[in-house]
């Protein structure tokens, strides 16, 4: 993730493959679908050591000033960084559709029900306003509808060699999440949903009037 967003650039090795795709999208009036996760920008410190409020849309004001554009949240910065990266390749007529974004409710740093609710509610309230570079609605899809309790995961104990191996003894068993006590060890992968697998609501969110 590039901060400031105007420095956005695709990796050199991807450019020969991306450019014809982007040119095709521009010719056909189709959008580029991008999965953008401020949560991972924060936890992997991909944009440096930034406060979580910038990720959750709760910063009091501008955090990143990029020329004439001021950024209060990482979502806008991420979308505009993608636009800047396309423009570096000579493509300016392709919209960005955010095909996945969200915040985990358990299993990792700053992963909580409250932060997940805050991120997703603020996201829904915000996307209709657009970004500093593109002040119109950003089509966006929240990940995900349900927690994925059967999603496979590799436990810490297995990685350290203190648990079962596969039947042929060649590697760790990948086990589904079985109980709440496994939540922390399992990490964030199972815990992005607005609903539990039994359809109970995890937290309330308003999607519009």
TrEMBL record:
Keyword Cell membrane listed: no
Pfam families: Glyco_hydro_17
InterPro entries assigned: GH (IPR017853), Glyco_hydro_17 (IPR000490), Glyco_hydro_17_plant (IPR044965)
Keyword Plastid: no
SUPFAM superfamilies: (Trans)glycosidases
Keywords: Glycosidase, Hydrolase
Molecular function via GO: hydrolase activity, hydrolyzing O-glycosyl compounds
GO biological process: carbohydrate metabolic process
Domain of life of the organism encoding this protein: Eukaryota
Residues making up the signal peptide according to the UniProt record: none
Family indicated by similarity: Belongs to the glycosyl hydrolase 17 family.
Protein name as annotated: Lichenase-2
Organism annotation: Triticum urartu
């Amino acid at each position: 993730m590039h901060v400031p967003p105007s420095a956005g650039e695709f990796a050199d090795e991807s450019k020969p493959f991306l450019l014809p795709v982007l040119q095709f999208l521009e010719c056909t009036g189709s959008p580029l679908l991008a999965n953008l996760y401020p949560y991972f920008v924060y936890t992997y410190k991909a944009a440096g050591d930034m406060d979580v409020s910038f990720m959750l849309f709760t910063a009091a004001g501008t955090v990143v000033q990029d020329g004439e554009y001021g950024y209060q949240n990482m979502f806008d910065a991420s979308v505009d960084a993608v636009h800047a990266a396309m423009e570096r390749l000579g493509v300016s007529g392709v919209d960005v559709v955010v095909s996945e974004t969200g915040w985990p409710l358990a299993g990792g740093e700053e992963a909580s029900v409250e932060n997940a609710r805050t991120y997703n509610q603020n996201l829904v309230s915000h996307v209709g306003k657009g970004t500093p570079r593109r002040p119109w609605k950003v089509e966006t899809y929240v990940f995900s509808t349900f927690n994925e309790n059967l999603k496979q995961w590799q436990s810490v104990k297995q990685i350290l060699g203190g648990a079962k191996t596969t039947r042929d003894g060649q590697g760790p068993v990948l086990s589904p999440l079985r109980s709440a006590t496994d939540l922390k060890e399992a990490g964030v992968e199972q815990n992005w949903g607005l609903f539990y697998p039994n359809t109970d609501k995890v937290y309330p969110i308003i999607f519009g009037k």
